[in-house]
Each structure stands twice: as C-alpha cells, then as structure tokens.
Specification:
There is one protein chain. By secondary structure, this protein is an alpha/beta fold. It is about 35% helix and about 20% strand. The chain has 14 helices and twelve strands. The chain has helices at about 10-25, 40-45, 65-80, 95-105, 120-125, 140-145, 160-165, 195-205, 235-240, 250-255, 270-280, 290-300, 305-310, 315-325; strands spanning about 5-10, 30-35, 55, 90, 110, 130-135, 150-155, 180, 210-215, 240-245, 260-265, 285. Strands 3-2-1-4-5-6-7 form a seven-stranded parallel β-sheet, sandwiched between helices. The radius of gyration is 19 Å and the shape is globular.
C-alpha cells in the first residue's frame, strides 16, 4: 500500500483529485487530499463529500500576496508531511506541492492541460518525475521547460476523469433556452488579453436565460442570473443549451456531455479544445465580435456524444499505473 498525497488548487483540481483518490483507494492505497481556500475549492469538496485538508488560501491581489501565501503554504506542508513523508505526490501543477515534494525527496506526478500557464510550468515541470498530458499537447511544448522527468501522453483530456460516468447531481431550473457564461479568469497570471464577460453575457440575454458564473464575486447583475452559493458546473452545463467561456474546464465539461460550447479566442495554444473539436465534440472557437452570431446558429444544437466519449482514454488509468510502479521512495 502506498501513501499518496494529492494537492488541489482550483475547482477542477478538486474534481480531478476526487477521481484519482477513488481509483487509488480501490487499489488499496491511502490518499491524503489537500486544497487551499478558494471560491471554487472548499464548496466543491463539501458538495462531493470528500475530506480535504485546507492549507493556505488564494490571494491574487498582487504578486506579493501570491508569493507570500505560496511560501506560507509550503511551510504548512512541511509541518504536515515533514515527519510522515508520502510515497508519491500528485497534482495539476501545484507549485507549492512540487517545491515541498522536491525538498523532501517525494516522487511527483503532475498533470498539464494549459500550455499558456508559463509561470506555473517554469516552477513545476523541471521538478516533475512524471508529466501526464493529453496527446493533443505537442511534446515539444512541454520539453521547452527543461523537463527531466518522463512525459506520458494519453488519448483524451483531463475532464474524462470525472465526466466519463457522470450523472447530473443537481437539477437546475433557470428557464429556457439556457445559456451559461463563465467569467474570464482575469486575475490569472497568464490572462494577458481581457474582455468584459458581463457585457458579453448581457448581449446574449436576447437569445435566452443567461446564468453568469462569476469567479470573484457573487453580486446581483441586472438582466443576468447570478446564482447565490455553490453551483455544480458539470450538472449545470449538462442541462444547458449553450456554454460560452474562454476555453477552460467548464468548456470541456459541456462539450463532453454534448452541450455546444463557444470558446472566446483570447488564449493561445488551445490544443485540448481543438483536439476535441476535431474528434466531433461541439466546441466552437471564435473571436469576441463573432460570438453572438455563432451563438444564434448553434444554440440548442445538443448532440449525443456518448460514443465519442467512450473512445477517449481516462487519465486516471495512466496515473494509477504510474503509482503502481513506485518501488523505492524518492524514485519513479
């Protein structure tokens, strides 16, 4: 039996961690889950009824607050794991976990799906023993970060880990046609180009009911439905008629369930979304000025993509296989 540490920094990572933990526990391993205080993490962990240890918080106000909270979090990890070192550490690019794991000699596995997250990659990929990434991402894109570990690619995307056998857990009744808009993550280090998600959402209200999923604040916005409290994004987009965002996790949660998803073209290297579109999933990338016309055309065009989804490889299988090969602490 291995003692595995999974660190989740955002909502997507929480879902990923729960999927990985479920599989590893079935194989007899012990899994310790950690996360940080973040609008998308703690509520989701509670919703999924999974016990995460909350360590540190998300503080994107400035570079100084980011650095300070990161250092505090690393020190807290040293206290938690310094005397009882895990056999392997897994995350989706957790800078804090990677630094501590490297210092304690813990073998590491990291997953990657955002080539444009340059700052994170500089601080994680050179230290990783194994890098698990969709085959949609060119290997050269990862290798440029002075990678020393093994790159393992799979024929699928990360979201398959929790969407493959997913059934909506909550029924939402916001009206029809239902359009879901996800706010751009403007405070992310990699968000160089920006647009007004609120202005775009308001424009789409002429086509249907618009649910606006805010990242940073939950206040009423005229003409938009801004849910109070936690919303299960995977369940919501399964019931929606259209999703609009900048190409992140919820985009793929929608498309993998057959809901048309529009990607506003603000980030370069959208390899995983292009890959899914080529395989027949309803993902459509366009410039901001063309979103409304595209939305008019594809609204309500849901598809049954179960056959396509079944053909994609589950990254949890890849991760579980790597964990099973850990034989000597400190080596993979």
């Amino acid at each position: 039996m291995m003692r595995v540490w999974y660190d989740a920094c955002t909502g997507k990572h929480v879902r990923y961690g729960v999927a990985v933990a479920k599989r590893l526990r079935e194989l007899g391993h012990e899994v310790v889950l950690t996360t940080r205080k973040h609008p998308d993490t703690v509520p989701l962990a509670r919703f999924l009824n999974e016990n995460f240890i909350v360590v540190g918080k998300y503080s994107p106000k400035s570079l100084l607050t980011r650095l300070r909270e990161s250092v505090r979090r690393q020190l807290a990890f040293c206290k938690i794991f310094g005397e009882s070192v895990p056999d392997v550490a897994i995350s989706h690019g957790s800078v804090d976990q990677m630094r501590v794991a490297f210092g304690l000699g813990i073998p590491t596995i990291t997953t990657v799906d955002t080539p444009y997250a340059d700052a994170v990659h500089k601080l994680t990929l050179p230290l990783a023993d194994h890098i698990v990434a969709s085959k949609a991402i060119p290997k050269e894109t990862l290798q440029k970060y002075n990678v020393k570990g093994k790159i393992v690619q799979f024929d699928g995307v990360d979201e398959v880990a929790w969407i493959r056998d997913f059934k909506p857990l909550v029924k939402y009744d916001f009206g029809r046609p239902l359009i879901v808009v996800r706010e751009l993550e403007e405070r992310a280090v990699y968000a160089k180009k920006r647009f007004s998600s609120i202005a775009l959402a308001k424009k789409l209200t002429t086509l249907g009911k618009v649910v606006f999923l805010s990242r940073y604040r939950q206040r009423p916005i005229k003409d938009l439905i801004v849910p109070k409290g936690f919303i299960d994004s995977a369940s919501l987009v399964a019931q929606a008629d259209l999703f609009v965002g900048a190409g992140g996790t919820i985009t793929r949660e929608a498309a993998l369930q057959g809901t048309p998803a529009i990607v506003v073209n603000v980030f370069q290297e959208q390899h995983v979304n292009d890959y899914l579109a080529e395989k027949g999933f309803p993902i459509f990338k366009t410039e901001l000025a063309a979103v409304f016309k595209l939305a008019q055309r594809i609204l309500g065009g849901k598809r049954n993509v179960s056959d396509l989804l079944a053909k994609l490889e589950n990254p949890v299988d890849v991760i579980a296989n790597i964990v099973s090969r850990v034989r000597v602490k400190g080596k993979l």
